[in-house]
Design goal:
Number of strands: 10
GO cellular component, one term: lysosome
Structural class: alpha+beta
Largest sheet: 4 strands, antiparallel
Family: Belongs to the SID1 family.
Order of helices and strands: EEEEEEEEEEHHHHHHHHHHHHHHHHH
Number of helices: 17
Main location: membrane
Membrane topology: Multi-pass membrane protein
Pfam families: SID-1_RNA_chan (PF13965)
Strand content: 5-15%
């Protein structure tokens, strides 16, 4: 800062040349220079006590900017790696800790301490892991330098006023700028601990593969027993008519569930022939409580109340029924032009209660290709996104290793175990769960799809005409996104800092968006967003994330623009959900809004057509407007996390909306999805507890971030953030299973009796 400082006492520790033995006499010269006039001084030479540090012993000392200190440490026999911990009760003055090889001269001044070795700035804590292989002499110096100013550690840059007659060149008197510190050198973990930690990590996540295999075997055995029982019931020795009329619930098994969770069976389920109502007359009707339901009129069925028979929502006897397309209330064969059928769909979407069959009229092959594009697009995005990220973080790590500047990366230095060129291997290893569990989810989806396709080839009526339409492309995209989240999180933890945090969050945005799309697709298979428009919107989100990270810190204009976009997007999405896609965004929207307000609010006071949907959408708007107001008022520094919080809140809100509407429609949640919901919620709770421990933060300076560092808590290898990685990967996997199995209770319900919401 072009300043000169006045000191009353200056001291330097002399460096002993390696070529000289301690018993030899050495001669040296001391040159003294000063900016002051007619200054007297005293020269004192003393022996440095405790110059060699001992393992696991604490040593306290004082240092100032003009009195740096350094000590020597020699590796004991059998110790390959040690961690040097330096602590202080006082945050300021700011200091620098450096590890240097045994060479002369020792760089122990503020203006040259960064020239060689490894170094960190420090307020209250510093920790540097040192490996014997990096020091040929099997020893090193621990250098402590107190800086002349505190700005690099997050302190203020003070203003020193000059006296009236003082010259601008007059040295600044910093008074007693002294810091008391304590240093301790301890051995780190052995190579056996690395092996045991890797095996522990693999064991946790491979156990999920074993559990899935056991469930598959159990389900396969159950299917074999069921087929044997059905064969026995169909034998000539039994009353055939009675066997065919036996409710399937008597067998304790749904007619078609060969593609259930974890099913790796042969996919052969019983024929739909002779299947009757599996719920019986005691089941709660599938309808909105207190409201009269009417069955839609088809060319072959007159209009009659739905609530007459409780089992009407289930498959009656559909062996001779035509394919799915004819289950809708409108027969496509009755129309001559595409315009006619599109007009009729507009009419359908204005009905009080839509059914899934109304929105599942497109050709299955077309929809299959449409949703497969989600997988191939995200796979392509992953390759083009991951390659430059990997290259960049390798460059970051190389810069850290070459320059020795450990302020570049924000590790938890008290629990950072190096391996090869990686500074924190444990933070990378703990991301393995995302990859392994994402792969397991892809395998489960693959087996489900295989079994479903086999059922279609057998013309299984349940697969053709019952349940939520099965489209697996979004599930494949979700599994791929989970694997990529693990890879990119590992890349971020190679060198975590402010500039590359979006690597860790980009695919979190993807996962949140894909989960919302999957929830919407369940009841709206024909009108769901295309892969191109969906990924374009997610790209826009990531663009805002980057802009917010680079320009959003304290920028009022940015926060105003973002908050307005957030509110407008919320309103547009609410309109899309309320009208189920049947509205147009054009110049006539203001006129239509005024017309609706006049007819529904002024001329006559009428309530909304979809009350439940309106109530939940109003709640969602309140939450999103509150988040927008919070961002505009508080303007958090961590914009990427704020944006992710918006996505997660909306996902949870939509999931709650889906569950509430599902239960309001008289549907139920089966045991497996219920257990997944409860277990996943518990795991998410523990995961968030470890996430908010905050072992480091790039919102502060590197020195201030190290004040949050903590020791390892698991196997002396993993810290709190690693536990977050373990638990959050399990929780995400469980959340995906919830989406996969949530509507399994509808697998025997005709699609023209499943409500859309």
């Amino acid at each position: 800062y072009q300043r000169k400082y006045a000191y009353q006492e200056v001291s330097r520790t002399l460096c002993q040349p390696q070529t000289k033995a301690e018993v030899e006499t050495q001669h040296f010269y001391v040159d003294v220079s000063t900016l002051s006039l007619n200054t007297s001084y005293q020269l004192r030479v003393t022996h440095v006590e405790n110059f060699v540090l001992r393992t696991n012993e604490r040593f306290s000392f004082n240092a100032t900017a003009a009195q740096p200190q350094y000590f020597k440490y020699e590796f004991p026999q059998g110790v390959d790696s040690v961690i040097v911990k330096v602590t202080s009760a006082m945050a300021f003055p700011c200091s620098v800790i450096s590890i240097q090889d045994i060479l002369c001269p020792v760089y122990d001044l503020d203006n040259n301490v960064a020239f060689i070795g490894m170094y960190q700035t420090m307020t209250k804590k510093a920790a540097i892991t040192v490996q014997k292989k990096d020091f040929p002499s099997n020893s090193f110096y621990v250098v402590v330098v107190v800086k002349t100013e505190d700005e690099v550690c997050g302190g203020a840059l003070p203003y020193y006023p000059l006296s009236k007659n003082a010259s601008p060149e007059e040295p600044v008197d910093q008074h007693n700028r002294q810091k008391m510190l304590e240093v301790m050198v301890s051995p780190t973990i052995t190579s056996e601990a690395y092996v045991s930690s890797v095996l522990f990590c693999l064991g946790i996540f491979l156990s999920f593969y074993v559990l899935t295999l056991l469930i598959a075997c159990w389900e396969s055995c159950r299917q074999q027993k069921r087929k044997g029982l059905l064969a026995a019931m169909d034998s000539p020795s039994l009353d055939t008519g009675r066997a065919r009329s036996t409710p399937d619930s008597f067998l304790g098994h749904a007619p078609y569930d060969s593609y259930g969770y974890g099913s790796f069976g042969n996919g052969s389920s019983g024929s739909a022939e002779g299947v009757t109502d599996s719920m019986g007359s005691a089941e709660v009707p599938y309808g909105y409580a207190g409201q009269e339901q009417f069955k839609r009129r088809t060319p072959s069925a007159p209009m009659r109340p739905l609530s007459i028979a409780m089992g009407e929502r289930l498959l009656e006897n559909v062996t001779g029924r035509p394919r799915l397309d004819s289950l809708s209330s409108v027969e496509e064969d009755d129309y001559d032009t595409l315009a006619d059928i599109n007009y009729d769909k507009n009419v359908i979407r204005t009905k009080q209660y839509l059914c899934v069959a109304d929105l599942a009229r497109k050709d299955k092959r077309v929809l299959r290709k449409k949703y497969q594009i989600y997988f191939w697009n995200i796979a392509t995005i992953a390759v083009f996104y991951a390659l430059p990220v990997i290259q960049l973080v390798i460059t970051y790590q190389t810069v850290v290793n070459v320059t020795g500047n450990q302020d570049i990366c924000y590790y938890n230095f008290l629990c950072a175990h190096p391996l090869g060129n990686l500074s924190a291997f444990n933070n990378i290893l703990s991301n393995l769960g995302y990859v392994l569990l994402g792969l397991l989810f892809l395998l489960i989806i693959l087996q489900r799809e295989i079994n479903y396709n086999r059922a279609l080839l057998r013309n299984d009526a349940h697969a053709l005409e019952c349940g939520i339409p099965k489209h697996f492309g979004l599930f494949y995209a979700m599994g791929t996104a989970l694997m990529m989240e693990g890879l990119l999180s590992a890349c971020y933890h190679v060198c975590p800092n402010y500039t590359n945090f979006q690597f860790d969050t980009s695919f979190m945005y993807m996962i949140a968006g894909l989960c919302m799309l999957k929830l919407y697709q369940k009841r709206h298979p024909d009108i769901n967003a295309s892969a191109y428009s969906a990924y374009a919107c997610l790209a826009l989100v990531i663009f805002f994330s980057v802009v917010g990270v680079v320009f959003g810190k304290g920028n009022t204009a940015f926060w105003i623009v973002f908050s307005v976009i957030h509110i407008v997007a919320t309103l547009l999405l609410s309109t899309q959900l309320y009208y189920m896609g049947r509205w147009k965004l054009d110049s006539g929207i203001p006129r239509r809004i005024l017309h609706v307000l006049y007819t529904d609010c002024v001329r006559q006071c009428s309530g909304p057509m979809y009350v439940d949907r309106m109530v939940l959408l109003v709640m969602g708007n309140i939450i999103n407007w509150s988040l927008a107001a919070y961002g505009l008022i508080v303007r958090p520094n961590d914009f990427a996390s704020y944006l992710l919080a918006i996505g997660i809140c909306n996902l949870l809100l939509y999931f709650a909306f889906y569950i509430i509407m599902k239960l309001r429609s008289g549907e139920r949640i089966k045991l497996i999805p219920l257990l997944c919901i409860v277990g996943t919620s518990v795991v998410w709770g523990f995961a968030l507890f470890f996430f908010f421990q905050g072992l480091s933060t790039w919102q502060k300076t590197p020195a201030e971030s190290r004040e949050h560092n903590r020791d390892c808590i698991l196997l002396d290898f993993f810290d709190d953030h690693d536990i977050w990685h373990f638990l959050s990967s399990i929780a995400m996997f469980g959340s995906f299973l919830v989406l996969l199995t949530l509507d399994d209770d509808l697998d025997c319900v005709q699609r023209d009796k499943i409500y859309v919401f």
